[in-house]
Design goal:
Blueprint (H helix, E strand, L loop, with lengths): L13 H23 L26 H18 L2 E6 L5 H11 L1 H5 L7 H10 L27 H9 L5 E7 L7 H6 L13 E8 L9 H4 L2 H10 L2 E7 L3 H27 L9 E7 L9 E2 L2 E2 L18 H12 L3 H4 L53 E4 L1 H15 L6 E5 L17 E2 L11 E2 L4 E3 L3 H13 L3 E7 L7 H14 L11 E6 L17 H6 L6 E4 L4 H13 L4 E5 L5 E3 L3 H10 L1 E3 L14 E6 L1 H17 L5 E6 L17 H8 L5 E5 L4 H7 L8 E4 L10 H7 L4 H11 L8 H21 L4 H4 L6
Parallel strand pairs: 1-2, 2-3, 3-5, 4-5, 9-12, 9-13, 10-11, 13-14, 14-16, 15-16, 19-20, 19-21, 21-22
Antiparallel strand pairs: 6-7, 8-17, 18-20
Helix pairs in contact: 1-2, 1-3, 1-5, 2-3, 2-10, 6-14, 13-17, 17-18, 19-23, 23-24
């Protein structure tokens, strides 16, 4: 916002107050109509029971406050010619956001059958919370939204994510009573310490306190105003308070507060951009206190409703059956004086729309809420620049994530001017071996710095805060508004965002069915410091179950990759960063790892998703193998190859096939996942009746769940993590979970028909090796030399 577009906090002229109140009343009328009516939208005849929906769903309590915010945002957007976006935290206030989209015309532009007249109003009412219609909350179907109504606690982090690297954008964020009590929201208040007033836009939080949640009072609403004011000031904000139940007084106060807030934002940005100010600014926040269910029924069946928790959802629940409830509903609707708001055709009167901005300035039409319209392809460099040389399998070793860090550094450098790529993580960038990125961008930081600090940068695009929730929210907001990014996290602790990724996947699934929503860049996770190399941190840091969680979600949206070495990680990452509308989970190690495939081989293997490593097995192609050793993940791959080597040495006549799986969804049939293998392909890899010993990175039952319909499933035996963990040596982790090479050899002997007797001595040797390991680590504290010094010498 430039200085010449500022509007000072002058009083609101009476004619403007009248227009704002008309718009607010119209939005309130439309909100009530959506909850209750399926006919007679303009009340051209007395209400009858058949005009009422058979099931009353929706949330009234927060809607009048949201309508007030929307009305006043319209005013300042129009007066100041702002680029603006609003995140509606109380997402169950869907009636309000839909009402305003219909009033401004963006809803009709998106859905031409919902016209801006009486017939369209009837459709708007009927479709709300109705089979075949739209949800009761803000959702992907809602024009202008980037935030799902079920995402309680994430509004503010989404708002900051949207503002990063959008210097001309003002992101208003309405935070509801209940949402304000959640842990993710509490952490996200710290986001203002990362907002760069030079390169980023502004976030204007509106803390909407109407006193109650579903059935209980709200904590922040019950705080004395002075105490709440101190809390917000302690969080780095300058609060502006708006409170009351008299519409005229609240309109005047809200207009004054928004003008003051936007003037302060403009001053902060001007000081940073023109005067070189470097102190962390104090950003404004508006505290809006209005009654819950404001303008609704004061009392129902002798009980207070307005300004209580009883107005949270449907204040009058018996309208079809109780004549008094029906009369109350009609009085309530007519109290907004719809004849003053809509003409005889049902269209909003011009005076109602005086405050509404035009075109893409409307909140329901802003391209920032349809980020696929803004996203550009990432300038990804050729992978040959970063690939590690592999002249034969087992070369190296390299740290895969360190190799990837060099690629990410150059992506960061290539986007330095356009600023549309960020790396986020909970204080783990260097720990996860990605510190090469600091060569192109430091870590975003607006607070004071000390001489011992390293790599902090007021304009940085590496985001670190020890709150996985906030990292996730930032990145989601960033992606949904048209940019790219990657979330790096310790594998065990990404579970903290389970519910957040749930909502994002649901958003993507619905968005893909809406022709008007353009595809956005994928949400990419790099999970490292994984279960098998958390031997030093112990049991608390060992949990590979995020993959299980993700693969429960919409198959059209989720992808899981387990690259076994540096070059396959490069190939997978390149694919993920180019993709759209997916959640890509990449599990890769940061510790030194053998290099199995050249870049060309890695590309071909990753394109297949699963394939035979013929150089590792002993089958000669003249017959079916006696056994299949399969693997997915870097440590399981190493153990399988070590087992294959032992089998070659001790049982040279045994035909063993080695299969590596990179794309775990390949195990599913194509009817269940777009990447799934046909039965023909699956049987060709794994056979239909030979024993398959599968060493898997995570919980072994996932593999059974994915493959249970395959012909050869009765012969599938999976080894993986079984919740056996402690602080120990790396190899002891796999031994404790029966994933080690010796156990895998024993599994082959146990499952190949006719092998148990002739190979009894080999099996005993393997069991003895496990016992030697047990004794050795307890005496020496390190793994057996034959394990620690092992290499592939096929």
């Amino acid at each position: 916002m430039s200085a010449d577009t500022q509007q000072g906090p002058a009083g609101l002229p009476d004619e403007e107050l009248t227009a704002l109140d008309a718009h607010w009343r119209a939005a309130n009328y439309l909100s009530v109509g959506q909850i209750y009516l399926m006919a007679n939208p303009l009340l051209t005849e007395p209400l009858r029971p058949e005009h009422i929906k058979p099931r009353l769903l929706g949330h009234w309590g927060t809607s009048p406050g949201l309508n007030l915010v929307h009305t006043h945002l319209n005013r300042v957007i129009r007066r100041r010619d702002l680029d603006a976006l609003c995140i509606w935290g109380p997402g169950h206030g869907g009636p309000a956001v839909l009402a305003n989209a219909w009033l401004e015309g963006s809803y009709t532009e998106t859905y031409p059958d919902v016209t801006r007249d009486a017939a369209g109003m009837a459709r708007l009412f009927r479709q709300f919370s109705f089979p075949g219609g739209v949800p009761s909350h803000v959702a992907p179907e809602t024009p202008g939204s980037v935030h799902e109504g079920g995402e309680l606690g994430y509004a503010l982090s989404h708002a900051y994510g949207a503002a990063f690297d959008h210097p001309g954008l003002v992101v208003a964020c309405v935070i509801g009573d209940g949402e304000a009590e959640t842990g993710p929201l509490a952490a996200s208040w710290q986001s203002n310490k990362f907002l760069d007033p030079v390169h980023d836009g502004a976030v204007l939080p509106v803390l909407h306190l109407n006193g109650y949640k579903i059935a209980n009072p709200a904590v922040l609403a019950r705080l004395p105003e002075a105490e709440l004011d101190e809390l917000l000031r302690g969080l780095g904000h300058d609060p502006l308070h708006v409170a009351g139940d008299d519409p005229a007084a609240v309109h005047r106060a809200m207009a004054r507060a928004l003008d003051t807030a936007l003037d302060r934002i403009a001053a902060v940005q001007r000081a940073a951009r023109e005067d070189g100010a470097t102190d962390r600014p104090r950003w404004p926040v508006i505290v809006l206190r209005t009654p819950k269910g404001w303008t609704g029924p004061a009392e129902v069946d002798g009980l207070p409703v307005a300004d209580t928790w009883r107005s949270h959802q449907v204040p009058l629940s018996g309208v079809r059956d109780d004549p008094e409830h029906l009369r109350q509903l009609e009085r309530w609707l007519r109290s907004y004086r719809p004849e003053e708001l809509f003409d005889d055709t049902g269209a909003p009167r011009p005076s109602v729309l005086d405050c509404v901005p035009a075109g893409a300035r409307r909140l329901g039409a802003t391209p920032y809420a349809n980020g696929g319209l803004l996203v550009r392809d990432l300038p990804l460099p050729p992978l040959e620049k970063y690939a590690v040389p592999v002249d034969k399998p087992g070369a190296g070793p390299h740290e895969p994530t360190r190799v990837l860090g060099e690629l990410l550094r150059d992506v960061m450098a290539a986007t330095a001017d356009r600023r549309d790529f960020r790396l986020v993580g909970p204080d783990e960038t260097a720990s996860n071996r990605l510190e090469a990125v600091y060569g192109a961008s430091g870590k975003a930081w607006q607070e004071r710095t000390l001489p011992v600090d390293e790599d902090l940068d007021r304009h940085g695009r590496v985001m670190e805060i020890l709150s996985e929730h906030t990292c996730q929210g930032w990145l989601e907001g960033y992606l949904l508004t048209g940019r790219h990014g990657l979330f790096s996290c310790y594998e065990a602790f990404v579970h903290i965002v389970d519910s957040m990724v749930n909502q994002h996947v649901k958003w993507l699934r619905v968005s893909r069915r809406l022709s008007w929503r353009a595809p956005i860049a994928s949400l990419n996770y790099l999970l490292t410091s994984h279960v098998w190399r958390q031997d030093h941190n112990g049991f608390s840091h060992q949990d590979p179950g995020f993959v299980d969680h993700i693969l429960n979600k919409s198959p059209e949206a989720v992808r899981v990759y387990l690259p076994p070495d540096a070059n396959t990680l490069l190939s997978v990452a390149d694919h993920a960063l180019r993709s759209r509308d997916h959640v890509n989970v990449i599990v890769a190690g940061k510790q030194p790892c053998f290099d199995w495939l050249s870049l060309d081989q890695a590309r071909a293997h990753c394109a297949r998703g699963a394939g035979i490593w013929d150089w590792a097995g002993t089958e000669d192609g003249t017959r079916e193998p006696d056994a299949v050793l399969a693997c997915a993940g870097d440590v399981p791959t190493q153990e399988v190859l070590a087992a294959a080597q032992l089998l070659r040495r001790h049982l040279p006549d045994l035909a063993v096939r080695v299969v590596n799986v990179v794309d775990i969804a390949r195990l599913l049939p194509p009817s269940e996942h777009p990447h799934g293998m046909t039965d023909f392909e699956y049987d060709g890899l794994f056979t239909t009746g030979k024993p398959v010993i599968f060493a898997y990175h995570g919980y072994p039952w996932l593999i059974h769940r994915l493959a249970y319909r395959r012909t050869g499933h009765p012969h599938l035996h999976v080894r993986g993590y079984k919740e056996i963990g402690t602080t120990t040596t790396p190899f002891d982790m796999v031994v404790g979970n029966d994933l080690d090479r010796y156990r895998l050899v024993m599994d082959v002997i146990d499952r190949v028909p006719g092998l148990s007797v002739p190979a009894a001595a080999v099996r005993q040797r393997m069991a003895d090796a496990r016992l030697r390991h047990h004794a050795h680590i307890r005496e020496h504290g390190v793994d057996l030399p034959e394990v620690a010094d092992w290499s592939w010498a096929g």
